[in-house]
Specification:
This is Scramblase. By secondary structure, the chain is of the alpha+beta class. Helices cover about 15% and strands about 25% of the residues. The relative contact order is 0.18.
Length: about 300
């Protein structure tokens, strides 16, 4: 007897399926509570369908269709505590359900992860169903976080992530943190494989463009959040989606008090631009990770 369609688990997020997705959820599986200095672990992620999330519920309990694991050195993770985005990192993206080692993280909050690989992650899992690799070399951080985040723009290279399609072995593009006169407004330029700028990722602004504008609207987001909108790189107009008036964006989800306060895991809702190719969607997923690494990961640690 066949199962009802509504009871079927979502299929793995292969590249072909990614091309058909208009939205996704990208959520950390790694707790950020009480993690700093040498206690900073690699940050792993789960990917879920974007149309089955209810605000205030647990996005990590959704059926995962993909997952990402980070490989970075102990030294890089330690220094990243005060220089967000500085560490050399590799995020390997897989299709299919996340393994038990990823879903069962955080057994000991004060465990110091000394190696590059999350404890318990098998070599077979590391090599299974690889879809993409998002990686960067060591760079300057985008700010100092001794007491308050203070943007620094006079150092280079700035944080970036380069995305490679693992099926073809080709680099599909990169996301680069942008520093200009409005240094308190985080912004990112997204380039294709030919180094053409295809998107600007940036929140709305206020005070004549000098500050970010918080939002308290939306069905899936949380109050006082900062959505990052995908924009035309020339006009900076927000790009359309298949969801009517909703614009293409990376938005922060409200995951309930337990996960917001106790585990401090970050979860995001991605709405892809209308007409985006599967390689461009892959690239935007990498952009989401870079936004978290530079803007939100260390805020949770402080």
């Amino acid at each position: 007897m066949s199962m009802p369609a509504g009871d079927l688990a979502p299929r793995p997020l292969t590249m072909d399926r990614l091309g058909d997705r208009d939205e996704l959820i990208l959520a950390q599986s790694t707790s950020q509570c009480c993690r700093c200095c040498c206690f900073q672990p690699s940050i792993n992620w789960v990917v879920a369908e974007g149309n089955n999330f209810t605000p205030g519920t647990n996005p990590y309990a959704l059926d995962s269709v993909g997952w990402l694991h980070e490989e970075s050195s102990w030294c890089g993770r330690t220094w990243s505590w005060i220089l967000p985005g500085c560490r050399e990192s590799k995020y390997v993206q897989h299709s299919g359900p996340a393994p038990a080692s990823i879903m069962g993280e955080n057994q000991g909050w004060f465990t110091c992860q000394t190696g590059e690989i999350t404890q318990g992650l098998e070599e077979s899992d590391r090599a299974a169903n690889v879809v993409a690799i998002h990686e960067k070399k060591q760079t300057c951080g985008h700010c100092w976080t001794f007491l308050l985040p203070i943007p620094i723009c006079n150092f280079c290279p700035l944080p970036y992530l380069e995305t490679t399609n693992a099926e073809t072995g080709e680099v599909v593009g990169k996301t680069l943190y942008v520093c200009d006169l409005c240094c308190f407004v985080p912004k990112y330029d997204i380039y294709d494989s030919n180094d053409n700028k295809i998107y600007r990722l940036r929140p709305d602004t206020c005070v004549a463009g000098l500050c970010v504008q918080c939002r308290c609207d939306g069905k899936k987001g949380k109050c006082c959040r900062v959505p990052f909108y995908l924009r035309d790189p020339e006009t900076l107009d927000k790009l359309a989606t298949t969801f009517g008036s909703l614009k293409a964006q990376v938005d922060v989800l409200w995951a309930g008090w337990k996960h917001e306060c106790c585990t401090q895991k970050n979860a995001y809702h991605i709405l892809f631009p209308l007409g985006a190719t599967k390689d461009q969607k892959l690239l935007i997923m990498g952009s989401n990770v870079l936004v978290d690494v530079t803007m939100f990961e260390q805020e949770d640690d402080d």
